[in-house]
């Protein structure tokens, strides 16, 4: 087995809105965490070291939680202790972790989840290769589960995520990006994995295509809402208090929805400002404050949150075909939680 | 479907030793090439551009040829035109191409297959993401074939390849690497995919475990022999005439078997030379010539070729359980071809 990574408890006070969901899947998540530990083990010591650096630093584990919850919502029964839901949930988290490791190389990030990025500590090469290792392990676990339909969904998601990331690359620093193009990017890079994570639940529970499509739609819309709120939060959200890390997207020249909206609505002078800062990367000490003022002037953050609320409503509506009960309630709360982060 | 890549004819005169094998699988390979074209298509224009840059530049396509040949050897019949052998062969080539794209980022290579590396033309980020896209497409095709056993073999190969590459990273510039450690690296980074490419042939033909194991052993040993000859060729092989690209491994500080052998057998002065050039990267104008002289003095290249011949013999022996015929003969010739490249 070799060396294994260790996992800290990822629960944070600001994630309290997810408490019901977390409690409902607690048993499964403890098996997901053990699976993650054992599947990052390797005799090649650098693999668990790098994987552990990122996995142990937490995150909410929202994606595997969604897989377990959607399987539970659909009455999945683990015949013979084969841990189908747990292995698919762990696969989803590995796919997400692999994406983060590769993203760091793509973005040349210095930080990730409040820690120095793996690529700074071990080099780009380790981030690329350990990401590949985790992707391989994800597919091995899916194969063990033995559902060709689940394999189909998750392998298609892997290509769509990569396409979304390449699209983002092509759109980078391009202020001509419109809302439609931006939505195509976040559907790929973020929402597709949420959608796949949810869809495989009814699939392994053997439920109808209508229920599979409903779970997929819930995940897709939730994922879009989640990313839009992230984009708003990067400029402090709609609250007056500014948290840490405000302005990361600005400094990296990322064109997100708040920028798309403010640029469209901006005066010629404001557009010149966005071109100088985001397109040419000439950012001075007062520019973040000026950017925030401009976003505020055009209501760009409120508008972004309103768009997120719209997608959240579609996520909520998608769950209508499932019977009421504690899991459905908790999944509905998760939508509220994602939106409420903005305040 | 979007934009698709184009494929040039990859046949080169020096590959004539493979002619029988190439002729036997010609129909299948033409379907593999069409599949590669259609599966690199994407509405995101950068994806076929980058994929095409590498795929169209050729290479012998040895791995997919092996998949088709091993399926044919085992009497695979394509029921209902589902192209199981063709899709698995294309998957194997995509896995190989993804590895090359990611390797370029890892090695910081400037050139690949005689062309400027994709990462130089489009950046590290494009190499990482298009590699991920191809890996996702590879798994989608495997899922379409529907053999869980083939999926198991190829997903396991994906993790073993990544482990081998990380091992190589840990061993880089480390002159304490011994022959055993070096063989573990090349089993992972090269031979595992050869083994998997061969093993899936009898698998989709529904043949016995003994035949699956024999095909795997043929591929594994052929892969090791292939890599050892590559290592010798990087120092010009055993021929007096030096080809182009001689000394690439030397300039990159790669510890390959010729170096492992010469370092073990070297005088204190020679060891100091290897430490200065490979470990510390202090390479002057006369150092490649000095390195070649040192390798020659200790017979390191002949010895490397002798090791390759040993693995080649094991590959040949593994085919004994299959009935004689044109495919088996051509697979035996392929072993000879791999070894003969060194002269």
TrEMBL record, chains A, B:
It comes from the Bacteria. Keywords: Magnesium, Metal-binding, Transferase. Signal peptide: none annotated. The keyword Magnesium applies. GO terms for molecular function: all-trans-octaprenyl-diphosphate synthase activity. InterPro entries: Isoprenoid_synthase_dom_sf, Polyprenyl_synt, Polyprenyl_synt_CS. The keyword Chaperone does not apply. Its cofactor is Mg(2+). Its EC number is 2.5.1.90. It is an enzyme of class 2 (transferase). Gene3D superfamilies: Farnesyl Diphosphate Synthase. Belongs to the FPP/GGPP synthase family. This is Octaprenyl-diphosphate synthase. It comes from Methylobacterium aerolatum. The lineage of its organism: Bacteria, Pseudomonadati, Pseudomonadota, Alphaproteobacteria, Hyphomicrobiales.
